[in-house]
Design a protein that fits this description.
- The complex is a heterodimer of chains A (312) and B (267).
- Chain A is mostly helical and 312 residues long.
- Chain A has helices at 2-26, 35-56, 73-80, 82-116, 121-132, 135-145, 154-159, 171-198, 203-211, 216-244, 248-253, 265-274, 280-311.
- The longest helix of chain A is centred in the first third of the chain and has 35 residues, at 82-116.
- Chain B has 15 helices and no strands.
- Chain B is mainly alpha-helical and 267 residues long.
- Chain B is globular.
- The longest helix of chain B has 32 residues, at 59-90.
- In chain B, 51% of the residues are buried.
- Classes of the chains: A mainly alpha (312), B mainly alpha (267).
- At the A-B interface, helix 2, helix 4, helix 5, helix 6 and helix 8 of A face helix 1, helix 4, helix 5, helix 6 and helix 7 of B.
């Protein structure tokens, strides 16, 4: 009885909800739309992971892969390789320093661009150019700029009283040069992302802060940071990802030298597989270790990001 | 005061952004002795580095290869990314899972995939081939395009699509006829970004294509390494051959690029 009495009251919205649900059900995203993505993931994700593992556990050459199971011999060879352990450390250091520099410079640029007001315009376009420059060309340009004879900065070194200074001549200098060059290329991406987020700070907030007599630093901390922080963190994680991929800059600017001081993991794996000894199995074992390292670092970075966002 | 400070910061930043490339232009117009003298301005402008660079390495062929690879890769990326972004944006939990899987694949350094992909390409006869490079680059850039497009699909109101379904369109037809036209700005931006990525790519190119018929421009530039001092001018000219097309494209399409990158990334 009660049921029949109640039905008219809830019937109309329920019916509407049902038709909506039916419409949704009748128009589920068809599974075949995901086929291209799945095929793409199979080729660029699952297959490389499986084949990499298979190569790492077997004796292989470029001409004849998978010649026989050798257990963990390749991992032992990777661990004993003089260059590989150091290259992992260098990759991690490179990623952290390059990310820090790109995030600081990019955020500063975005704040300056926002303070200037007006449109993104031509200045914005100029600031973004490094990002689209082929990294190989970036490497060539910086290498020529820093050349001890005929380089673009020889005049600057003379003026500073360090004539003939060659940053690429020492291990630390060469590593720092690569970090700066990489950050030069990718700070614009941070600038663009943070600038877009800054446009999301409501105008009333800026005005209210100004009315309250808040200074620049205070406004930045209390008004801007809460809105922009998630974007800055996301940009930082993206920069870590990009920095761990670095290969071309090293290949062109230093080729790993002087000595082994700029051999990052990507470059070392490439050397092991395609240059000199062609140790395909060892290289595959190295890629597995590298993949795990990147996974751990990015996983940690992701956790930190989520934690900070949750608090904000 | 604050405006003055920010203007100063921006002026320095703009100078830093263009200085290395400006120096390349200067070097490309100078002879060997002029380069050795240092400085930023040519003592006497000469153009012979440019034709010489085209003779030292088959630059014209490499430029053509780069464009074929980049255009082919971008087309493939777009064809895969549009339905994929629809799934990630509209298919609820499974869409989210697909999105995460794609991002995870993007996070791995490409060197991890190089050896397996080398053997795959070799087994199907696509090493030393622009087709092989276009395929690999096209698939490798799918996560980037989906990351940018996902937000654009989400902003298409569900009602618009539902209206199309009521009119009898299937979901796939609705995607093609209703959603696709509305996400064109995102698709343009994503395609530009993926074009730049494929055009600038070096690791796959140097690993999979050793023969001159398939070598791309980035590989060609790395071949200038040998004689350092002598070839400064030629090396600069060759680098500029690679840079000029992307700069022209980036400036012409600046609005589409900035809009797509900033909107796609900010949720």
């Amino acid at each position: 009885m009660t049921a029949t009495l109640e039905r008219p009251a809830t019937g109309a919205p329920a019916a509407r909800a049902r038709t909506r649900a039916q419409r949704r059900a009748g128009h589920r995203v068809p599974r075949w739309l995901a086929i291209p993505a799945v095929v793409s993931l199979l080729i660029t994700g699952l297959y490389p992971a499986a084949a990499g593992l298979a190569l790492a556990l077997t004796d292989s050459s470029l001409a004849r892969p998978l010649r026989g199971f050798v257990g963990f011999d390749n991992f032992v060879a990777a661990a004993e390789s003089v260059a590989f352990g150091g290259s992992l450390v260098r990759s991690a250091l490179f990623a952290v320093f390059a990310t820090a520099l790109a995030v600081v410079a990019g955020t500063a640029g975005a704040l300056a661009l926002q303070a200037r007001g007006g449109r993104f315009g031509l200045l914005g376009a100029v600031l973004l150019l490094p990002m689209v420059t082929p990294p190989v060309s970036v490497g060539v340009a910086w290498k020529l700029l820093l050349a001890p004879v005929g380089g673009g900065l020889t005049g600057l070194w003379d003026a500073l009283g360090v004539s003939g200074f060659n940053p690429l001549g020492s291990g630390v200098g060469a590593f720092a040069t690569l970090v700066v060059t990489h950050a030069w290329q990718w700070a614009p991406l941070v600038l663009l992302l943070v600038y877009a987020a800054l446009l999301g700070v409501p105008a009333e907030l800026w005005e209210a802060a100004a009315l309250d007599g808040a200074g620049w630093w205070r406004t930045l901390r209390s008004v801007v940071a809460p809105v922009v922080a998630p974007t800055v963190l996301a940009a930082a994680v993206l920069q870590l990802v990009i920095a761990f991929k670095v290969f071309d800059l090293v290949a062109v600017v230093t080729a790993g030298g002087p000595g082994v001081s700029t051999i990052v993991a990507s470059f070392e794996v490439f050397r092991t597989a395609f240059r000199g000894s062609f140790e395909v199995g060892t290289a595959a074992a190295e890629t597995i270790v590298l993949g795990l390292l990147v996974g751990v670092v990015l996983g940690a970075a992701g956790l930190v990001t989520r934690h900070t966002r949750g608090d904000a | 005061m604050r405006a003055a400070a920010s203007r100063a910061v921006l002026a320095v930043a703009a100078l830093l952004a263009i200085a290395p490339v400006v120096f390349l232009v200067s070097l490309s117009l100078r002879g060997v002795d002029d380069v050795q003298n240092g400085g930023w301005l040519p003592e006497r402008v000469r153009w012979d580095n440019w034709p010489a660079a085209f003779q030292t390495v088959p630059l014209a062929q490499m430029l053509a290869n780069s464009w074929v690879v980049a255009l082919g890769a971008t087309l493939l990326t777009a064809l895969v990314a549009v339905p994929t972004a629809y799934v990630t944006a509209r298919a609820g939990r499974s869409g989210k899972r697909l999105h995460s899987a794609l991002l995870a694949a993007y996070c791995a350094p490409p060197i991890v995939a190089v050896l397996p992909l080398y053997f795959l390409l070799k087994s199907v006869g696509l090493t030393n081939s622009v087709v092989g490079l276009a395929l690999v680059n096209g698939l490798a850039n799918v996560p980037v395009a989906v990351w940018l497009l996902d937000g654009f699909v989400r902003r298409v109101p569900a009602e618009v699509e539902e209206a199309a379904w009521v009119d009898g369109l299937s979901v796939a037809a609705g995607l093609r006829r209703v959603v696709l036209p509305l996400i064109v700005p995102g698709l343009v931006a994503a395609s530009l970004v993926c074009f730049f990525l494929a055009y600038n790519e070096f690791l796959f190119a140097v690993s999979f294509a050793q023969s001159p018929s398939a070598q791309t421009l980035t590989v060609g530039l790395s071949l200038f390494q040998g004689d350092r001092t002598v070839q400064f001018g030629q090396q600069a000219a060759a680098s500029l051959v690679a840079i000029v097309p992307v700069y022209v494209l980036a400036v012409l399409a600046q609005r589409a690029l900035v809009g797509g990158l900033s909107q796609g990334a900010v949720r």
